[in-house]
Design brief:
- Helix content is 30%, strand content 32%.
- It has 2 helices and 7 strands; from the N terminus they run E-H-E-E-H-E-E-E-E.
- A hairpin with a 4-residue loop joins strand 5 and strand 6.
- The longest helix has 24 residues.
């Protein structure tokens, strides 16, 4: 990527070129890259942060599925809600805590997974544990 966030899909190796083109097309489908012609693409500003965030959400969803499957509570993804620490809950969540653990051990961030009476499974990032 150059200073204008432009990359080329071209490569001397046809296999590498097809890999690059496929990756750039995937980024385009996510709204993170725009074709500008002649095998060149412009990447959005903040691409690295966006991809990191997407990976974190994927990790959360996998954690939620694993914890619920272990307790035979797995529901369709449509019945799962993810709450982050920055957005306060507007309504209380009533149910059984399935698991309490870390959302980020390095920064002492905690989370709970709740099997709620509303028929949803809730992943709630509760931030730092009080009392430490």
């Amino acid at each position: 990527m150059d200073r204008d966030r432009i990359v080329a899909a071209t490569n001397r190796d046809p296999f590498q070129q097809s890999l690059r083109a496929a990756r750039l097309q995937e980024l385009n489908s996510l709204g993170l890259a725009e074709p500008i012609g002649k095998g060149r693409w412009q990447l959005v500003d903040g691409l690295e942060d966006t991809l990191r965030e997407m990976g974190e959400w994927g990790d959360i969803i996998r954690t939620l599925q694993r914890d619920l499957t272990a307790q035979n509570l797995k529901r369709a993804r449509v019945n799962q809600t993810i709450h982050d620490a920055e957005t306060p809950l507007t309504d209380p969540i009533i149910g059984r805590i399935v698991k309490r653990g870390f959302s980020d051990e390095v920064n002492d961030q905690h989370c709970v997974v709740v099997d709620a009476i509303d028929g949803q499974n809730h992943y709630v990032d509760i931030g730092k544990e009080e009392g430490h």
